Amino acid sequence: MEGLITRSCKLVGLAGAVLALSLMAGCSNAPDPAQRAINAANRADQAASRAEAASQKAQQAAASSQAAASRVEQAASDAKAAADRAEAIASKSMSSYREGGRRSYRRHRKAAAEAAPSGGDSGGAPAAAPSP
After folding, report:
1. 126 in the Ramachandran plot: left (φ > 0), alpha (ψ -120 to 50) or beta?
2. Mean of the per-residue pLDDT values for the chain?
3. Helix or strand (DSSP H, E) at 13
4. Are 127 and 120 in contact (CB under 8 A)?
5. Given Cys at both, which of 1, 11, 35, 78 links 31, Cβ 3.0 to 4.6 Å?
6. What is the rounded distance in angstroms from the CA atom of residue 32 to the CA atom of residue 39?
7. pTM
8. CA 59 vs CA 51, 55, 72, 130: distances in Å
9. What is the largest CA-CA distance in the chain?
10. Are 82 and 90 in contact (CB under 8 A)?
């Protein structure tokens, strides 16, 4: 009987140790694998949300920079057109000044030539004869 009690005590002690170990394992602070997987999935979901928000901001920035580039290109085109118009106006005004100057000079020479013979008839000096 004494052997039976000793074996029973050992068995109860061993069962108590197993129970204590299982309680300690169950009450530990480390989450079980399922909880760790859920936490990882939540973190992945949050990271995906942040990535999507960053992607949307990048798309908005790209659209904004594209619009700015378009405005700059339009401004450059307008400036080139204005420069071309200014060059055409300057070219026209310079050519009309040269032509007008020649015409004016010719007009004055012609008027002076016509006035010379009539002025010679009324004055004291004899008119010069035309050369042959």
Report:
1. beta
2. 77
3. helix 2-26
4. yes
5. 35
6. 11
7. 0.41
8. 12, 6, 20, 89
9. 179
10. no
